[in-house]
Every structure is written in structure tokens, then in C-alpha cells.
Design a protein that fits this description.
With 159 residues, the chain is of the alpha+beta class. The chain has 2 helices and 7 strands.
């Protein structure tokens, strides 16, 4: 039996098992190093991830956002009708994941000269904060209101 203890096994981290699964996925996906990639900051709010995917067509690639992860998958199929005398370029599959911070949205992707460019934007949410005035309820006002109510009830009785 193989038991693995992690930081998230602590009783202080109940309900954080999704973080542990995310870390496990990142460890598995990051070990191969294929395909190589760059992350560029294009402007104050725009980012670009560029993956080197030479040999892949748009039909071989899939870009998805799953929960808070950007997942890029590539799958090439062997062409059975070809006869290779030497095969140095293997058809291979890959999956590369990137954890997206809150407020990062994927705007699009395009393939150009063997480079897959994924455009990201950091969306700054409009503030929904509003100021709530704080009023003081003084006892003097309460006493004045009671005396007005008493006067009006006496006048109603006398009429």
C-alpha cells in the first residue's frame, strides 16, 4: 500500500483537495517540456502564450479552458500509407496546461508558421463597492417623536 502525505492532508486544509489535484496535474504536464513555449506581456492588460507546434495543423490542435486552466492538446496520427526508410520525426501527442489567475480571459488563438499564439486579456472588473452613509439615532429625536405622538393622540381623544 502506497500512502502519500502532503501538506493538504492536514486537518487545517479540509476542502482544498482540488488544489492538490491541480498541483498533481501541473507536475505531470510540466515534466516533458514539449512543446516549448513563451509567455509575453503585450500591453498593460494583454498577454500572449506562444507554443512551438511545428508539424501540427489546426485540426490536430485543441485549446480549451477547463475551470481555471488553459489546456492545449495536440494529436498527430500516423499516416499508414507512407513507408519510412528513416523516421526521426515521430508523430506525438502533447498536453500543456497553464493555470489562469482570476480575471484572465482567453480572447482567441491562431496558428502561424508552426507557432500557436493564444491571446489573453486581464479583465479589471468594475468596482461594485458603494459608500453606505452611517447615521446616528439620537435619543433626543426619539423623545421628540414620542412627545409629538402623545400630543396627537390626546387631540384625537378630545375631539
Amino acid at each position: 500500500m502506497n500512502t502519500r502525505l502532503t501538506l493538504f492532508d492536514s486537518p487545517l486544509f479540509l476542502g482544498f483537495d482540488h488544489f492538490e489535484r491541480t498541483f498533481d496535474r501541473l507536475k505531470k504536464n510540466g515534466s516533458d517540456g514539449y512543446p516549448p513555449y513563451n509567455i509575453e506581456q503585450i500591453s498593460d492588460h494583454d498577454l500572449r502564450i506562444t507554443l512551438a507546434v511545428a508539424g501540427f495543423t489546426m485540426e490536430n490542435l485543441d485549446v480549451e479552458v477547463e475551470q481555471n486552466q488553459l489546456v492545449v492538446r495536440g494529436q498527430q496520427s500516423d499516416e499508414e500509407e507512407r513507408v519510412y526508410l528513416h523516421r526521426g520525426i515521430a508523430a506525438r501527442q502533447f498536453q500543456r496546461s497553464f493555470v489562469l489567475a482570476d480575471g484572465i480571459e482567453v480572447r482567441g488563438a491562431h496558428l502561424n508558421n508552426g507557432l500557436l499564439n493564444i491571446e489573453l486579456e486581464r479583465v479589471i472588473p468594475e468596482s461594485t463597492a458603494r459608500k453606505i452613509p452611517i447615521g446616528a439615532k439620537s435619543e433626543k429625536k426619539s423623545i421628540e417623536m414620542k412627545s409629538i405622538e402623545n400630543k396627537s393622540s390626546k387631540q384625537t381623544k378630545s375631539e
